[in-house]
Amino acid sequence: MEHRGIFSSRIGIILATAGSAVGLGNIWRFPYEAGQNGGAAFILIYLCCIVLLGVPAMLCEFILGRRAKANASRAYGGWPWKMVGYIGVLTGFLIMGFYSVVAGWTVQYVYASLAGCLSGDAEHIKQFFVSFTSHPFKPVLWTIAFIIITHFVVVRGVQRGIERTSKIMMPVLFVLLLIIVVCSLMLPGSWAGVEFLLKPDFSKVSSSTFLDAMGQTFFSLSTGMACLVTYASYFDNQVNLSRSAFHIAGIDTLIAILAGLMIFPAAFSVGINPDSGPSLIFITLPNVFQQAFSGVPVLGYFMEVLFYLLLLLAALTSIISMHETPTAFVSEEFHLDRKVAARWVTGCAMVVGTLCSLSLNAVPQLRLFGMQLFDFFDYLTANILLVAGGFFTAIYVGWILPKKIVYDEITNGGALHGKLLQMFLFSVRYICPIGILGIFLHQLHLI
Predict the structure, then answer these.
(1) What's the whole-model pTM score?
(2) What does the pLDDT look like over 334-351, one tens digit per residue?
């Protein structure tokens, strides 16, 4: 087995780890949550959740990963805590499997937008989506194609694969996002969308708003699935973990807000109220771009192509980390060469992705506990496994891991100030577990 890789630069660490956090959820979930829950009022609550919950949860995984210098299963010590690492690896792998289905759709839509297949009225766009997703083979082929793309990144290793790719994709993603935001803001009537997103409306704030903000925090930062533990195992001992966590959370939040400024101004300029989920990005937004730039069809075409390239990059940066987590696990636990381990993970992910894709339309009989396989894995990971991973990680770092280890990791062995150590420990001991438990009960509609 080859020597473990390590990130070669601070910017590589920030971009790769931020790429793990930035995904389709930033684009189809955060703007809708903010708009429906009081705009800037929700964003303020979300920022508080980032500081009190998100950054401490991220720091927990950074501490465990860098200390272990190994895959997630070894980061939690002996039994029974080792199971938390196993759950994290499984969670990342399952999310990779079904998330690649939607990511595969983005590959198809990049091709379709380039070929002009999305030109037409709203009904044509809707029928195109329905026809594509119900096709017995096309979605499967694009799912497999997407997984293969991530394979070729991961198989090249930490520096030559993950870090180098992140240094290219993350700046390109940010530039594409800025271009679309500027074009959206220049549309007539776009300010109504800006107000919808950014004007505070505290009358919409309720107890569920706080729980939604907490849920979005953990969902957005990729905590609880061992990806951050794995990436942190490639950090060197001079990395400032606290500063890195704040920088990554800041980048993730900025991109989520910019996504809202991309979507809402364009949608409101043509009188379309955007919803959430896949229908937003595959049905609503193509119609929005065509109507918004109907006076200049070439610009509408240009915006459409850029948008789906943006989605593709966001999906790629996330799934690369989900691929890396089980690859590191298989390589180190079974003493396999990294390339062999990556091939095993890729092959298994293709099987899961294929079954999940088929379960949506072509073979609806593929069900577990009454749910289509895709929906079952989505529910299992989002409502149970991610919550369990985040909860027990906070408990382990807050109550089980010796305080000296926590201090040494946060201060780099005393080289940095540890002024926020007590606040961090208070958060992971009390605020994070209580918050995660609240999210769990809220997702089950018990509170």
Answers:
(1) 0.93
(2) 999 999 999 999 999 999
